[in-house]
Amino acid sequence: MCKAVYDLMEAKHSVWVSLAVVSKHLKVTDAEMLEGAMSHAAQRGWLMVGGRPAHSLMLIAAGELAVLAKK
Prior knowledge:
The protein is of the alpha+beta class and 71 residues long.
């Protein structure tokens, strides 16, 4: 999930990305799977989740570092 948000940020920092766009990018439509991935990443401090219900995501510094470390 973090990698998808990173790819969609287009090298900009502090950018909110629509959950629908992330879902399409990942080719995942299973809401439970997306919720689990969002929850996991948010608990690790990798991204922020906007809205209730969630509608957007923002990768924060720790998440960006995690993505870059895997490249």
